[in-house]
Amino acid sequence: MSEAAMETTRIDKKSTVIGAGMLVLGLVLAAVGKAMNTSDPDVLAHAYLFGWVYWACLTFGCLGLSLLHHAARGDWGFPILRIFESGGGWINLTVFGALFAPVALLWKPVFYPWARPAEVAADKVLQYKAAFFQVWEPRLILYFAIFITLALLNKNWQRMEDKTGEEKWWKKRQYFGGIFLVIFTFAINFLWTDILMSQYARWYSTIYGIWFLVGSCLLAFSVAAIIVCTQSDKKPYNEVAKPWLLRDLGNWMLTFTMLWAYFSLSQYLIIWSGNIEENIKFFLDRSERGWLYHAWSLIALHFFIPFTLLLSPRAKRVPKLLAGIGVYILFARFLDLWWVVTPTWKKEWGINPVDIGMFLVFGGIWFLLFGWQIKQAPLLTYKARPLTEAVDHV
Question: Which CATH number fits domain 45-353: 1.20.59, 1.20.1630, 1.10.8, 3.30.160?
């Protein structure tokens, strides 16, 4: 077995072990937490949705960045393309689409006011929206069908290029990459509008879905940086984990950190300055009973700390430092999504074993799928002309 093949197997095994450990521990914590919260019949549903949202964001982020790479053909994308393909592939998308079924089929009245007949009967706004939400499930199926199709097409074209080395395949991906990226952006925007924003009868934001997309891309780049940097002294990443790649990964993480801050502040200022009661409901729910302190902490924990660290040239030269920043951003994204998602139903700030348990369960599933997919192809392909050129220039 070659060194490259051995390293592929090692990454696969590490991901599988991490995934299995998270899955087992998560199931235990979820069971214990559910037994401790018998007074709340919906505690499992709430924890389930949050766990799904976090790891679905990572999956969508990987898909979006793979499309961005095919459209832009930047040197930064070739060494980490397999990571994005494995994290946002059609199998992962299919599984996470299926895992949303309990929310859509069993717990819809728990989350969505338009799914509660008594509230619809008493609210003219919900009655007006009723026709739109009658096709809610078909729309969700359509979104995932779009994502799966995009992932399949790009994967098949990439494999054909790996097999034949013919330029027509990368030219095809580049030609359709921009189109695919626009389709993906529209679909992901409507998906988060339907899944999360529709939990409010009246509140809306025109950048809500893009806000999620930016955070998803930050998650995906952080995972890619962790993998490349922790494996930088082993084949095949020791061939490409050079200063130029670490700098590019760090700069991308810095860019999406700033974009997240920009969209977060813009959304808040525009909605709050309007001061219309029904439009500020989202922020009112997140500024009471402990949630306000959480919001203030995000300014430091999700922006100033990673922003300051990623400004440092040394942090983008030393693999261990960049990997540590990546791990920290995974934690910061957890804090942000906890503040964005859970106050809709959790009026008092708090976290219990069920929440952590379901988060770990979905994380375990993600890592198991990632480990299965990462071994399907070599981590690097030198048949791709641009990658060879990028390595040769180092």
Answer: 1.20.1630
